[in-house]
Specification:
Blueprint (H helix, E strand, L loop, with lengths): L6 H20 L10 H5 L23 H19 L5 H30 L23 E4 L2 E5 L15 E5 L2 E4 L5 H9 L11 H10 L7 E3 L5 E5 L2 E4 L11 H10 L7 H8 L32 E7 L25 E4 L16 E3 L8 E2 L3 E3 L15 H13 L3 E2 L8 H11 L5 H12 L1 H8 L3 E6 L5 H7 L7 E6 L2 H14 L4 E6 L17 E6 L9 H15 L4 E7 L4 H7 L6 H17 L8 E8 L4 E8 L3 E5 L2 E5 L4 E8 L3 H10 L2 E8 L5 E8 L1
Parallel strand pairs: 8-11, 13-23, 14-15, 14-17, 15-16, 17-18
Antiparallel strand pairs: 1-4, 2-3, 4-12, 5-6, 6-7, 8-9, 9-10, 18-25, 19-20, 20-23, 21-22, 24-25
Helix pairs in contact: 1-3, 1-4, 10-17
Length: about 700
């Protein structure tokens, strides 16, 4: 490989750096160890003079290794003598640069040794093989950052390479960063799905190179005749560690995988702002295990060590950057073209060498470095994916399913749980003894109906979101004083018409309007024939818990616009409680919730011709303590693959499809969220056990 250099070249070159930039410059009458070494071991410093071509370094048999070590001893002794003269601070900075330069070549030495050994058909081992640790990270998961004006770049007094500064401000839009680097298991799915054969995922130059070089997998990967994957490591040729970070991929491959995953690579500013909050710990060269290892931790892990992580940022100058004078100015500045930034260090990087501001860089085709992938996503509002009137649109359904199953982790919007069969199953769930939210909320409304009606006031217009059978609204209507009109909004037009007809018959003086629409999207309110004085949105059922908190805030703001000045919101909120009770509510012994969740797979089979076997998935419920939410998942019981049209999806045993979230709140937490959305609390009503709350707000 043209990029690789022999071991003795690295040893001599790092010594040459000290001889050239320190001893020759600052030691009077310094005598070179060998006059030809300047030509042989100059890497790319044009101002120093001519140099031996990089591609020819491996062809040199002389000087011998013995002579190179003699050279290192000679220069080391001269440097020791020079230190006695007490070098100036400027010279000390050059010496520190030389030390860090040697640390860089310690890493390059490992990568080049690995490449040289891999060319041997016997695949010799450099070190003992380590069996794979069990990973605790079955899902990628995402860390959210709200964005805003932030500062990146180094601002301290310790050593940095010049390209790490100056510190400066950048604007970040809200984004997500994957908690874990992409694993070999995940990357294998990309391969098996034909990722190396589908041009639509690749940048133009990357696709051309992929075809030219006949790439079919990361560098060092080999596929046996029986279809199993092996890869060459410093422990020889071994089975691919499925849970270890994928390694030795180019920028082109990393970008293609990100596109295939419906994600992207992070910008270096996004990476740095997350990394700043984390300790610099991980799997580095100090362990003398020069292969990436699986993570055994939760949260944002392996952001340092294991693999350098490609970013989508090109290596260019920060605002205010100035190239140093002289040949040393060629160290970084001359490479600010055609290079992509990598962050975080690897299993071959000395730990003390890395910082959150450290900017490594390589051309996009480079694969020989210990380079891997961490994904990012833009924070676009996901409100529209909660409940939508496109629930029965087959094309949208297909696209959403393909997109969700292509994501990491796999997920499907909870709106697709509610087809006709799903809706019937959910009605059964609401009647279960263990499913407390429905009956508890109805009890609160009945027990406090007079007080609630008084707080709402007379002559009001009620707007119910997700009205369904309009069962709960009847409790309010029976207590209200001369309500003017009711506008019912629901996803199901058939259900809406049926319920509206019943309400009209029961309340002949009430104007009943209907909107068959997705209340999470913009919709047009029907024109009333009455004189509307006060609008009140009624949003029962704790559906607000299905929203991500940021989306909930956006949704509440939209309600403020709907009701306008003097408007109010009456909302149901499921409260935080003993998680055992929560788990029982979402995983009943009768198996109705399980049937409700698995019905999603049956629906996909029926409408999209998929091949899911619901019996090979188990309904699982988790309480995410950190996020304060119940999560419903469908967990694969075995390693399996599913076809949907021309698309094929792979599921590892234990891998899940995330189907629903239900956030739980303390009352004060939800009141604070509402306040940020433009709402002030008027009153709160709860049951005796504080399982559920009905809260009345007014627009500020």
């Amino acid at each position: 490989m043209p990029d690789a250099s022999p071991t003795k070249w690295h040893l001599a070159h790092t010594t040459w750096f000290f001889e050239t930039f320190i001893l020759k410059q600052f030691v009077r009458n310094y005598k070179e160890f060998h006059t030809d070494f300047n030509f042989l071991f100059n890497s790319y410093y044009n101002k120093i003079g001519q140099r031996h071509a990089r591609t020819e370094r491996g062809m040199i048999t002389r000087p011998s290794s013995t002579e190179v070590y003699e050279y290192r001893v000679y220069v080391d002794n001269k440097m020791k003598d020079y230190f006695k003269s007490k070098p100036t601070s400027d010279v000390l900075k050059l010496i520190e640069l030389g030390i860090n330069h040697e640390q860089q070549h310690q890493e390059l030495l490992i990568t080049d040794i690995k490449h040289a050994l891999s060319r041997n058909p016997l695949y010799p081992a450099y070190q003992e093989y380590l069996t794979e640790k069990r990973s605790n990270t079955s899902e990628t998961g995402w860390a959210h950052h709200p964005g805003g004006l932030v500062e990146i770049g180094y601002s301290g007094k310790e050593f940095i390479f010049d390209a790490e500064g100056p510190r400066h401000k950048v604007w970040l839009e809200p984004f997500y960063l994957a908690k874990h680097p992409v694993s070999n298991r995940e990357y294998m799915n990309f391969i098996e799905d034909g990722g190396y054969k589908k041009a639509e995922f690749w940048l133009s130059d990357g696709w051309a190179l992929c075809q030219k070089e006949n790439w079919k997998a990361p560098m060092y990967w080999h596929k046996n005749d029986d279809g199993t994957w092996y890869y060459y490591t410093m422990s020889g040729l071994v089975p691919v560690k499925l849970n270890a970070p994928v390694c030795h991929v180019s920028y082109y491959e990393a970008d293609a995988f990100a596109r295939w995953s419906n994600a992207r690579l992070p910008r270096e500013s996004e990476w740095e702002i997350i990394a700043k909050s984390l300790d610099i710990e991980g799997h580095f060269a100090d362990t003398n295990i020069f292969d990436p290892q699986p993570s055994t931790k939760d949260g944002v892990t392996q952001i340092y060590g294991d693999v350098w992580e490609w970013t989508q940022s090109s290596f260019s100058a920060y605002p205010g950057y100035q190239i140093a004078e002289g040949a040393v100015g060629e160290y970084n500045g001359k490479f600010m073209s055609g290079q992509m930034v990598l962050r975080g260090g690897s299993c071959a990087t000395p730990q003390e060498h890395i910082r959150d501001s450290y900017r490594n860089f390589f051309p996009p085709y480079a694969r020989w470095q210990f380079s891997g992938i961490r994904l990012a996503k833009d924070k676009f509002s996901s409100i529209s994916s909660l409940h939508a009137n496109d629930n029965n649109n087959k094309d949208i359904f297909f696209n959403d399913i393909i997109s969700g199953l292509s994501s990491i982790p796999k997920h499907i919007s909870s709106k697709y749980l509610y087809d006709s069969e799903g809706a019937q199953l959910f009605e059964k769930i609401c009647k279960l003894e263990v499913y407390y939210p429905t009956k508890t909320e109805i009890g609160i409304l009945k027990n406090n109906s007079a007080e609630i009606a008084k707080s709402l006031g007379p002559n009001i217009t009620l707007i119910e979101y997700g009205s369904g059978a309009l069962e709960k609204i009847r409790i309010l209507l029976d207590s209200l004083i001369d309500p003017i009109s009711l506008c019912a909004i629901d996803i199901s037009e058939a259900q809406l018409k049926k319920s509206a007809r019943i309400i009209r018959d029961s309340y002949p003086n009430l104007e009943v309007l209907t909107v068959a629409a997705d209340f999470t999207k913009a919709f047009k309110m029907p024109k009333s024939q009455r004189d509307i004085k006060s609008k009140i949105v009624f949003f029962p059922g704790s559906t607000i818990g299905n929203f991500e908190p940021e989306d909930a805030r956006t949704f509440l703001q939209s309600i403020c616009k709907t009701v306008g000045k003097n408007g109010k919101l009456l909302i149901g909120v499921d409260l935080k409680k003993d998680y055992e009770r929560l788990l029982k509510a979402y995983d009943d012994d009768d198996g109705i919730t399980e049937a409700f969740n698995k019905n999603l797979l049956i629906r996909i089979n029926q409408e999209l011709g998929a091949g899911f076997n619901p019996n090979l998935f188990r309904h699982t419920v988790r309480f995410n303590t950190f996020k304060g939410r119940i999560e419903m998942h469908l967990e694969s019981c075995i390693d399996q693959s599913i076809n949907i049209g021309k698309e094929k999806f792979f599921f590892a045993a234990g891998e899940t499809i995330h189907t629903e979230n239900s956030y739980k709140y303390h009352i004060h937490e939800f009141i604070e969220l509402a306040a940020l959305s433009g709402l002030d609390k008027i009153s709160t009503w709860t049951d005796n056990d504080n399982l559920f709350a009905v809260i009345l707000f007014k627009v500020k």
